[in-house]
Amino acid sequence: MSSPAPVEARVPFAPTPFAGSDGATHLAYELQVTNVYGDTGTLRPRSLDVLDEQDRVLQHLDEAGVDAAIRPVPDEGKPAGIVAGKRGTLFVWITLPAGQLPHTLHHALVFTDEKGRTSHVDGIPVVVSDRTPLHLGAPLKGGRWLAHEGPGNAHSHHWGSLVAVNGTLTIPQRFAIDFVGIDKQGRAFKPVKDIHATTYADWFGYGAQVLAVGNGTVVAMRDGQDEHKPLEAQAEPDSLSLDGLFGNYVVIDLGGGNFAGYAHLKRGSVAVKVGQGVTRGQVVGALGQSGNSAAPHLHFQVTDAATFEGSEGVPYVFDKVDSFGPESEGQVFGMGERWKAATVRHGVDVLPLNDTVVAFP
Q1: Same domain, 38 and 82
Q2: pTM of the predicted structure, to 2 decimals
Q3: Which candidate, 54, 155, 175, 215, has a CA 20 to 30 Å from the CA of 163?
């Protein structure tokens, strides 16, 4: 018979429903599970069910699903396990059935220990946030863009990056997107003999105008930082902060506790100052490769604070998004089967999902 599991489990930041570029409504959040006692041994999470207030199952993860959703990532070929005294974080991505919007969630977890004994957790309630995702204008002018390392990818360096600073543990990049410019064939740069010898001029997105996504006030900016050679190895950042990660950047206070962050801008391109008011569609800089960036792209995010550390990433939607289907990272570099655009989906008030090719009409 299963017994209550000796763990502490919690949802640290309540999820907000948002519409994705796939036409569905989603919830994205984290479930932190701590194996409290030193003598418990390693606990293996075997399954997770997420239920709404009517006990309808919104998400079921079996062993393979749990292994794919948990961090730290299990060693290759080994199942997930939470060592005694350690914490595991399950990254939960739910696609809601049409017309079904839950008000509360609760969870059922099943574990086995090193002796094969089964234990469980039933509960872990969380109220779904009634916060409305911010409606934004285009962040870039013209072109097609790969929404790389975007929402829905629990293994991205965005959603998967927990930042522990000064007593808080947050995920500033929970809904961040790296917009990589591509041509109609899905390539990020012109055909070259050696991809490690590209110049900025070879990259289709480099120098593109970066736009204010809404009316607001500039609360942070930096310019004058050097840019890196494309596809060059990067040193570890000095700090988990705007200055340590973003290179040349702009942060705009959009009101209502929402802050839009633009990172890796072209040196000398930042066109706004702290305290300056901006309007939707105004040019604030140009796409570049400054800061902690391996290739030219625009890093864009919305958070609930002006700083990087201590802020939580919140969902947002763009007024108009044309989606052309998924593209793999290999295809962006011209490897494997050639990318072909799918039938365009004209989205209104949606968030581009991971590795989807989009344009802003």
Answers
A1: yes
A2: 0.96
A3: 215
